[in-house]
Each structure stands twice: as C-alpha cells, then as structure tokens.
Amino acid sequence: MQVVNDVRTALYTEEGELLYGENPLARHTQELPFTETRVFRLRVEGSRYDLYDRKLSLALPDGSSLWIRGVVSETRSDRQLSDITRLSLILLPLLILAALAASYFLIQKSLQPLRQMEEAAERISRGEDLKERVARSPGENEVTHLADSFNHMLDRLESSFEHERRFTSDASHELRTPTSVILAQSDYSLERERTPEEYKEALTVIRKQARRMRSLIGDMLSYTRMEQRPEQYEKLPLDFSVLVRETAEQMAQIETDRIVLSCEVEEGISFRGNASLLTRLLQNLIGNAYRYGRDGGHIRVGLSRAGEDLLLTVADDGRGISQEDLPHIFERFYRGDASRTEQGTGLGLSMVERIAKLHGGEIHVKSEVGKGSEFKILFKNQIL
C-alpha cells in the first residue's frame, strides 16, 4: 500500500483487478467504474471520502490499461487544510514583519544621501565648513543626480561667499586710506587757526580723497552688479566701429601729459553688445594707458576683423608691467608696483575682464617694463 500525504493509492487493471496497494474502500467501490478527471465523494460508516482515478500511459502486455485510484478521508483533508491555515496564520505576520524590515532598511539606505544633504545644509546655515560635500552613492538615479546638483550648488555658494569675503575685505582696506587722510586733514585744520593757504591745501587734499572714494564706491557697485546680475545688461546690435572711434576721441580730449592717441578703426563692424559696458571697457583701458604712460608717449587704439572674429587693441609705450605682476593684474584691488598704489581704484582691469567675458571675449596681455603694454581682446564669432 502506497500512502502519500494521507492519500492511499492502489493500482488496478481496467477490469478492476487490484495489482498493487490497498484500497480501504475496495468493498464499497468495486462496482464503481474508473472515470478520469473526476472526484467521487462517498459516505461510508459515517465518514466521508474522496476518490480520484487516473489512467496511466503504460499498458499490460495484452493491451489493457492500468488505473490508479486514490482515496483520502475528508477528515484528513480538513486536517491538512487546517494545518496549512494554522501555519499560514503563523508565518504571514512573520513575512509581513520581514517585508516591513526590508522596506525600512531600503528606505533608510535610499534616504541617507538626503539626510547628508540636510545635515550639510544645517552646518552651512550655522556658518561651518563650506568645503564639505555630499557623498555620491554608486549608480545613476534621481538621488545621485540630486546629490550632484546639491554639490554643484555648494561649489557656487562657496565661491560666492569667498568672493564676497575677499571683496568686503579689499573694499574696507581701500576705503580706509582715503577716510584716514580726510580725518587727518580735518583734525589738522581744526587744531588751531590756519592761514587761508593752509585751509585751501587741506580742502584740496580732502576733495581729492573724497573723489577717490566716490570713484571707488561707483566702481564697486558696478562690478557687483555685473557679477550678481549680468542679465540686466541688455545686448543690442550696435556699430562698434563708431563706438570705439568716438570713445577714443573723447578720451583724447580729456587726458593730458602730451600723450598722443591714434585710432585705427576698420569701418562698418557691427556687434551685439551693451554700449554702456563696452564704453566703460574702452575708457578703463585707455585711461590706464594715459595714467601709466610717459610724457610725450603714444597710445594706439585699433579695431579690426580677424576672420569671423573681432580684435580690439589698446597699446602704449609707457612704464609697462613687470612679469611678476602680470599674472595678477586682473585681480580686484591688486597692488604690485608701488608707483601704482595711489592711482586708480584697483578695479579697472577687473571690470575690463568681466565686461569682456560677458561679451564672449578673451583678453591677452603683453608687457615689458620701460617699453609699454598691449591689451588685445578677441571677440569670437561676434560680428553681425
């Protein structure tokens, strides 16, 4: 007798002869014909049974078929079902807890970069280290992209804060000198009665330093606006040839020291840019050439096409710039040569570089002490 999972099976011939196994209901089912894919239900001595027949693919030598008949008590089936149900009730909560634990772990792992971003933001808001960055998790997904964006934002914030710190420090240092001179002259004049000539001399010094402060403050405001809000400067088509020639002529009328300014401008060059900023760029370059030129010297201003590009040149034969100072001349408030410390605001060339970049230009400088300087600005693909 073969018993599997409380199911008793027996092997029969097609005529109903038992070949193998045992059927506990043989006496009650001997007249019951074999029928495949059908479950019979019998009630015997108060108990219920289920019967199932299956025809085998094998056959006896005489060609007759073989059948398997399975018998199981419904009580046994109910018990098995009850066992399965009871086991499910035990395992289901455990499976739910395991699923919740796995979900919590995955959520916590996926939210870890977000928590790092939050902690970094809190540290930054408290004024701590701005150099810290969010660790980038492996792979490419929304969280890693967010971490990259957050780190990029921190880079910009760090750069902005560093520029602001340096600008504030440099500006306070630059304003301290004229303020000290004005206060010293005022105290000197008020110590006792002075002659009209002494009062006039003190007022002349105060006026000079006040004008320097005004120029410095104006340059600082202009530079800050260009750095923080470059989009406010609208770029429109303009005749750059006319702008360069008129600006050079105006500067030649204002400046002195017997310096000769010559202008070689190729006619008909149209350019998309901001006229106010480009005029400021030229004024700063030409003004520097006058300021650091030599008596009886020359300044050359040129504008020409260079293929698809545009070349603006301002050159002089003045004092020149040392090779040591040359890499730093575009830094704000940079002071190199002692002879330059009392001239200008220290922002002129920084503004030139910023304006050139706003218009897609590149600046190249050549200079030699005692022989002069040459500034070339190449505007790439800007000709209309």
Short recap of the structure:
This protein is α+β, with helices and mostly antiparallel strands and 384 residues long. The protein has helices spanning 26-29, 74-125, 142-191, 196-228, 240-254, 275-291, 348-358, and strands at 2-4, 7-13, 18-21, 39-44, 47-59, 65-73, 236-239, 260-265, 270-273, 298-306, 309-316, 361-368, 372-379.
Structure overview:
It contains 7 helices and 13 strands. The chain is of the alpha+beta class and 384 residues long. It folds into 3 domains: 2-79, PAS domain (Beta-Lactamase), CATH 3.30.450.20; 166-230, Signal transduction histidine kinase, dimerisation/phosphotransfer (DHp) domain (Helix Hairpins); 233-379, Heat Shock Protein 90 (2-Layer Sandwich), CATH 3.30.565. The strands form 3 sheets. Strands 1, 2, 3, 4, 5 and 6 form a 6-stranded antiparallel beta sheet that branches. The protein has a 5-stranded mixed beta sheet with strand order 8-10-11-13-12, covered by helices on one side. A hairpin with a 2-residue loop joins strand 10 (298-306) and strand 11. Helix 2 packs parallel to helix 3, helix 4 (196-228) runs parallel beside helix 7 and helix 6 packs antiparallel against helix 7. The N and C termini lie far apart (102 Å).
CATH fold topology of the largest domain:
Heat Shock Protein 90
Name of the CATH homologous superfamily of the largest domain: Histidine kinase-like ATPase, C-terminal domain
What is the total number of structural domains? 3
CATH architecture of the largest domain: 2-Layer Sandwich
Q: Tell me the overall shape.
A: elongated
- Beta-strand portion reads 15-25%
Average predicted confidence as pLDDT: 79
Uncertain regions spanning at least 5 consecutive residues: none
